[in-house]
Design goal:
It is a single chain. The chain has 253 residues and is mainly alpha-helical. The protein has two domains: 199 residues, MFS general substrate transporter like domains (Growth Hormone, Chain: A, Up-down Bundle), CATH 1.20.1250.20; 36 residues. Helix 4 runs antiparallel to helix 6. The radius of gyration is 26 Å and the shape is elongated.
Length: 253
C-alpha cells in the first residue's frame, strides 16, 4: 500500500519536508544560542543569555500569530516559501558578517553586529511562519486514514533522527568551520524553496478525497472515472426518457 503511486509521493514529500525543517538550523540556534550569539560578538554570559531570552520570546509570539491567524489564510506552500526566503536572507547575512568581521576574536561587535543579531531575530520569525508548524500540519493531512499512522510515524522518525544529527554536529561545525555553519543552513533553506515550488502541492482547504486526486492515487482516479461514467449513464437515461415522452406526445397528437 505504501509503495503505490500517490501514497509513495506523499511519504517522500513528508519526509523530505522534515529534513529541510531540521536543516533550516532552528534547533541549532535553540540548543546552542549562547554559543551562536557569542560567535556574532556578544561577549559575556549574561549578555548572550539575555539575547537568547529575547529570541525565545520572539519565537513564541510569532508562532502563535502564524498558526492561529495566518496559516489557513495564505496556505501551506506560500508560507513555507516566504518564511524560508526570510530565513535564508538572515543566515546569509549573519554568515557573511562573521566571515568578514570575525567578531569573536576581535571582541568588537559594532553596528553590523547588531544588525546580525536583528537578522537572527528576523530569521526566528521566518521560521515560525514556515517550518515551525506547517510540516506537522502538512504531514497530518496528506495521508489517507489507512496509512496515516505509518506516514506520520515515518515523518516523525525522520524529524527526530535529523534532530539528533544537528544536536551532535553543530558544536563541531561552529568550532571547525565557523561562518560556514550559517552558510550550510542557508544553502539548505535556499534549495528547500526551489523544492517546495516545484514538488510540494498546496493542500489548503482540501478534503481527504481531494488529497487522493491531488497526489494521483490510482483508487481516486478509478473513483473519479466511475463517477463520471455513472453521471454520463444517468444523463443518457434522462435524455432517452425525455425522447420517449416527446415521441409519445407526438403520436397522440
Amino acid at each position: 500500500m505504501v509503495c503505490r503511486k500517490g501514497n509513495w509521493n506523499r511519504l517522500v514529500i513528508g519526509n523530505v519536508m522534515m529534513i529541510f525543517m531540521q536543516m533550516a538550523g532552528s534547533n541549532a540556534i535553540n540548543y546552542f544560542s549562547p554559543k551562536i550569539f557569542k560567535s556574532i560578538g556578544l561577549g559575556g554570559g549574561s549578555t548572550s543569555l539575555y539575547a537568547t531570552g529575547i529570541y525565545g520570546i520572539i519565537r513564541l509570539v510569532a508562532v502563535l500569530i502564524a498558526m492561529y491567524f495566518v496559516v489557513d489564510k495564505f496556505g501551506r506552500t506560500k508560507m513555507l516559501m516566504s518564511g524560508s526566503a526570510v530565513m535564508a536572507v538572515g543566515l546569509w547575512f549573519v554568515g557573511s558578517y562573521v566571515k568578514v568581521a570575525n567578531p569573536e576574536e576581535s571582541n568588537n561587535i559594532g553596528p553590523a553586529g547588531y544588525v546580525a543579531i536583528a537578522m537572527l531575530y528576523i530569521y526566528a520569525v521566518g521560521f515560525c511562519f514556515s517550518y515551525a508548524g506547517i510540516p506537522w500540519i502538512y504531514c497530518s493531512e496528506i495521508f489517507p486514514m489507512n496509512l496515516r499512522s505509518i506516514g506520520v510515524g515515518s515523518c516523525t522518525a525522520t524529524h527526530w533522527l535529523l534532530n539528533f544529527v544537528i544536536a551532535r554536529s553543530v558544536p563541531y561545525m561552529i568550532t571547525d568551520i565557523g561562518y560556514g555553519t550559517y552558510f550550510v543552513f542557508a544553502s539548505f533553506i535556499t534549495v528547500g524553496i526551489v523544492w517546495i515550488y516545484f514538488f510540494v502541492p498546496e493542500t489548503k482547504g482540501l478534503t481527504l478525497e481531494d488529497m487522493d486526486i491531488l497526489f494521483g492515487s490510482p483508487q481516486a482516479t478509478s473513483d473519479v472515472e466511475l463517477g463520471i461514467a455513472a453521471d454520463s449513464e444517468k444523463r443518457k437515461h434522462e435524455i432517452d426518457s425525455t425522447h420517449v415522452e416527446i415521441s409519445g406526445a407526438s403520436t397522440t397528437d
